[in-house]
């Protein structure tokens, strides 16, 4: 009985040992196969890092403001009798916008004009009497003072009548009407906004370290999200003489022509101040850069010799083949971190990490890794255009 048990256990050990051994052998063979399985090269587009000369510019963000912009109000109280404008109208300086009921004021003006006229007549009679010696000089001076007071009172009333008519203080474009016929306006009540839009300002600020570089007349270019792809030309026309102690920034103002009225007060604007100097840079397309939280990198294309083992196995065939049939060098990529500089259109300048003439991948970056084999196909390359160079003349 014991011998039969031993033979059974030995048989089970041999059987299971064979099964596990076969599985281990198969796993090793599969791992070897996958480790040595040929990887298809990734197809990419590539370009060389090139040298270029870029004008130096300083960027900032600002706000578009009107040269003249007010909320037109009434100086005196009164009931709206006539509205002589529509929302959005273009007006000239002095155009009538609104008339308030001024009948009572005009009636009082007539009474004051009559009193001033009577005072003038009294003064003339007293001058004749004074010339004849019938009255004293003090009496004449008293009559002259009364005449002056009557004229001044009438002039003040005439101004009050004039204030019943609201006029445009300067030429520009009106906003939305904020009053209605028959409405009673109090002094300072808003009537309509008025903006002078051409030319127009862009106000912005820069850190104090740029103060020595700024001067009136420097060229400025503005871009706005409301008009993508468009650049507006202007120049710096004013600098704040002091620096804000809380932010250490100083304020500047650039003036832009606005014939087409695309720039509107309150718009957000990016401003580039064009300096007269330029710098030499190495540039690559933006599509060549893989942005990440730990740094920006590119894949540099390198040439590598084919596998030596493969060469040994095929040495006799290569010896018989013509030079055109010999295997070309393989292309591989190596990731490299770089430091980026300024941007112009689709191009980015590289401050560190890349030399002129080195080839970088410009598409297919997500499927690349270090030492990956690649094939370059530039039949459909991404856009790589720069913005026009600024005119610093």
What would you say this structure looks like, in words?
- By secondary structure, the chain is α+β, with helices and mostly antiparallel strands.
- The chain has a domain at 39-54 and 280-380: conserved putative lor/sdh protein from methanococcus maripaludis s2 fold, CATH 2.40.420.20.
- It has 5 helices and 19 strands.
- It has helices spanning 2-35, 103-132, 137-162, 308-313, 315-320, and strands at 42-44, 46-48, 50-73, 78-83, 90-91, 96-100, 165-167, 172-174, 184-185, 190-207, 219-223, 232-239, 249-256, 268-285, 296-304, 330-344, 347-352, 359-361, 372-376.
- Strands 3-10-13-12-11-14 form a 6-stranded antiparallel barrel. Strands 7-6-4-9 form a 4-stranded antiparallel sheet, with no helix packed on it.
- Strand 16 and strand 17 (347-352) form a beta hairpin.
- Helix 2 (103-132) runs antiparallel to helix 3.
- It is elongated and about 165 Å long.
- It starts with a helix and ends in a 17-residue tail after the last strand.
- Mean pLDDT is 81; it is low at 310-327.
Structure, briefly:
This protein is α+β, with helices and mostly antiparallel strands. The chain has helices at 2-35, 103-132, 137-162, 308-313, 315-320, and strands at residues 42-44, 46-48, 50-73, 78-83, 90-91, 96-100, 165-167, 172-174, 184-185, 190-207, 219-223, 232-239, 249-256, 268-285, 296-304, 330-344, 347-352, 359-361, 372-376.
């Amino acid at each position: 009985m014991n011998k039969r048990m031993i033979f059974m256990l030995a048989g089970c050990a041999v059987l299971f040992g064979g099964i596990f051994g076969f599985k281990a052998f198969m796993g090793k063979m599969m791992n070897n196969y996958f480790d040595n399985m040929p990887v298809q090269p990734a197809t990419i587009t590539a370009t060389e890092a090139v040298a270029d000369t870029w004008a130096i510019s300083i960027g900032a963000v600002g706000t578009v403001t009107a040269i003249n912009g007010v909320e037109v109000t009434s100086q005196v109280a009164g009931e709206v009798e006539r509205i002589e404008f529509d929302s959005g109208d273009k007006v000239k300086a002095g155009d009538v916008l609104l008339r308030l009921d001024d009948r009572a004021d005009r009636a009082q003006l007539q009474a004051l004009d009559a009193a001033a006229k009577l005072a003038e007549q009294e003064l003339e009679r007293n001058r004749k009497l004074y010339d004849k010696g019938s009255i004293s000089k003090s009496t004449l001076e008293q009559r002259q003072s009364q005449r002056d007071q009557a004229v001044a009172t009438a002039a003040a009333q005439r101004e009050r009548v004039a204030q019943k008519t609201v006029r445009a203080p300067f030429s520009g474009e009106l906003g939305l009407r904020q009053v209605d016929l028959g409405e009673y306006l109090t002094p300072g009540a808003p009537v309509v906004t008025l903006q002078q839009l051409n030319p127009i300002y862009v106000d912005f600020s820069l850190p104090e370290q740029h103060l020595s570089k700024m001067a009136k007349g420097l060229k400025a270019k503005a871009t706005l999200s409301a008009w993508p792809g468009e650049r507006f030309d202007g120049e710096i026309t004013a600098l704040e003489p002091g620096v804000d102690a809380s932010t250490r920034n100083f304020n500047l103002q650039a003036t832009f022509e606005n014939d087409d009225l695309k720039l509107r007060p309150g718009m957000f604007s990016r401003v580039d101040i064009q300096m007269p100097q330029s710098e030499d840079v190495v540039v690559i397309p933006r599509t060549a850069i893989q942005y990440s939280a730990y740094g920006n990198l590119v894949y540099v294309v390198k040439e590598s010799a084919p596998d030596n083992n493969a060469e040994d196995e095929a040495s006799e065939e290569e010896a018989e083949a013509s030079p055109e049939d010999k295997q070309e060098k393989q292309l591989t990529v190596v990731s490299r971190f770089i430091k980026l500089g300024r941007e112009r259109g689709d191009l980015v300048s590289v401050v560190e990490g890349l030399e002129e003439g080195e080839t970088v991948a410009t598409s297919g970056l997500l499927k690349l890794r270090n030492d990956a084999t690649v094939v370059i196909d530039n039949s459909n390359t991404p856009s790589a255009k720069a913005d026009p160079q600024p005119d610093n003349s």
